[in-house]
Write a structure and sequence with these properties.
- This protein is an alpha/beta fold.
- It has a domain of about 160 residues.
- The chain has seven helices and seven strands.
- A seven-stranded mixed sheet has the order 1-2-3-4-7-6-5, sandwiched between helices.
- β1 and β2 form a beta hairpin.
- α5 packs across α6.
- The two termini are about 20 Å apart.
């Protein structure tokens, strides 16, 4: 995908960007739910995200203004041609500087295969990618039960922040009526990377000076699961 973007007119404009536009564009699923929520927020972060980040009291997370939000932002990683596709990559700023918020929207979906499953069936390219993610996140060896998606989504936030020379990176799970075990997967990942609790649902990664990096679980407004946006296909 080229990095040339045009403004959306409605949430339906998000559909063609999906990996499987016909399959993933369904009422109540994460793609349509996220599109409805973010479009409704207009030129701001969704209110629950803005409040949660400001509530930490951290200067780099307070009163963030949304500059741009890119649906299905693609980040290239070593070890193959498959990109890590972030549901929404939000570029924000405040008086402290730029902040990149990489959003993984979840409804009923889980975080996909575990690190153990990826490791057991890994090609040479996948082994290279796993090694790279371990180095980037400063973990010698992730436990087999850690969800692999959380590794490369966090990497996407950190790498994109680097591209924009942003001082802060956030990997945020935007959860809409998501089953409790998904949050367990998230907190297990936070423990695995040695993240420290900043405030309810917000964790700070260790050893990251530039950019500062955070992991966040934010509950979204479940009403957006009931919105049905038109399909282009």
């Amino acid at each position: 995908m080229k990095r040339i973007f045009v403004p959306t007119r409605s949430g339906t404009d998000w559909q063609p960007l999906l990996a499987k536009p016909k399959v993933h564009w369904r009422k109540g699923a994460s793609a349509m739910t996220a599109a409805a929520a973010w479009e409704d927020a207009g030129n701001r972060l969704p209110s629950e995200i803005e409040a949660m980040l400001s509530g930490t009291g951290r200067a780099e997370l307070k009163d963030l203004a949304l500059l741009s939000a890119f649906p299905e932002w693609q980040v290239a990683l070593p070890g193959g041609t498959t990109t890590s596709n972030t549901d929404v990559m939000a570029i924000c700023r405040n008086d402290h500087g730029l902040c990149v918020v990489a959003v993984e929207a979840k409804v009923l979906e889980d975080f996909g295969p575990t690190v153990g499953e990826k490791r057991n069936k890994a090609t040479d390219g996948q082994k290279e990618r796993l090694d790279y993610l371990h180095r980037l996140l400063g973990v010698k060896c992730f436990d087999d039960q850690i969800r692999y998606q959380l590794l490369h989504r966090t990497a996407s936030a950190i790498l994109t922040a680097g591209e924009f020379h942003a001082s802060t990176a956030v990997m945020l799970v935007h959860a809409f009526d998501t089953p409790a075990d998904r949050r367990t997967d998230f907190t297990r990942f936070c423990d695995a990377v040695g993240a420290s609790l900043v405030s309810q649902g917000v964790y700070r990664l260790p050893g990251t000076i530039f950019p500062l990096a955070y992991l966040v679980w934010c509950d979204g407004d479940g009403q957006y699961r009931n919105e049905e946006l038109p399909s282009l296909f």
